[in-house]
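A further point concerns the way the authors explain their paired sequence and structure data. The central task, working out the C-alpha cells from the amino acid sequence alone, is never made concrete. I therefore recommend that a typical entry be quoted early in the introduction. An entry of this sort, consisting of the sequence and the corresponding C-alpha cells, reads as follows:
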Amino acid sequence: MTVRTRNAHTATLPPLTTSQRKQLLSTYSAVNPHVVYLRDGELVVYRRTRSLLYQCRYKLADGSWYRQSTRKASLEHAIVVACDIYDEGRYRQRLGLAHRAHTFAQIAALTLLELRKQIDATNGKTAYHTYITCIEKYFVPYFGERMLEDLTHTDIVEFELWRDKQMTRKPKTSTLNNFTSAWNRVIATAVANGFISERVPVPKLTSKGLKGKTRPAFTEEEINTLLTFMETWQHKGKFAVEKEIRPLVRDYVEMLLLTGMRHGTEAMGICWKDIEWH
C-alpha cells in the first residue's frame, strides 16, 4: 500500500496487520492531513478548506476519475468508506455496470424527461403519453428505490400481480404492449447512460393477455336517429361557446361516420387543405 500526504514523502508500506493499521490511522488523525493518497495513488481522500467532511476521488480501470463524498468528518472512518467506494466501483465496472448504482426511480426520471421533450417537440408518438402513465402510475410506485440490475423474474411476476390488482381488471394484449414498450424505454435509457451494460439480463414483462374485442358498429337506424337528434341539438346552445362549438361537433360526427376514420389521432390531424371539394 502506498500512502502519501501533501507535506510528506511517498512511502511504500508492506502489508499491515490490524494493529499496525490502527496505529497508522491514529498517527494520521493526530497529524490531520488535508490529502491522503491510497491504492498506488488511484484513491485520494481529501478535505476541502471550508468543509468538515472528507471527500474522495478515485480512478477506475478505464482511466476515468470520479468524486464522491465519504460523509465522514473522521479521517479514520473516511478512509474506510473511501476504500469501500473504490472497491465497489472497480467491481461494478468488471460486471459491466456503472461505477455507482442508480435506483429505478432515478432512471425513470430521465426516461420521463426524454419522453416529454419528444412530446414538446411534436416528434413524439401519441403512445408516449401512455408510456408516461405506465411509468409514473405503476413502475415508479412499485420499484422506486430498487436497482434495475437486481430485479429477478420473480419480482416481475409479483409486479404484474400487483398491477392487475391496481387496475381491477385483467389487461388486454394492447395494454400489455404499452407496458412492455414503456419498460423497454426505461432499460434503453439505463443502457444509453451507461448505468447498466447491454450484457446485464433484465427480465421482461409479459405481453400476452386477453384478446381485445372489436367494438360493434352503429346500425343504419342508430345513425339516422343520431343525425336527426343532432340537427336540432346543434341550435340549442345557451352560451356563446356552445352556439359556436355544437355545429362543429355535428359536422365532426358526420365526417367520422362517412369516412370511417378514428376520432383523436386520425381526425385531429385533418386540415382544410386535406379536403377536396367535388
Q: What stands out?
A: The two ends are 88 Å apart (CA to CA).
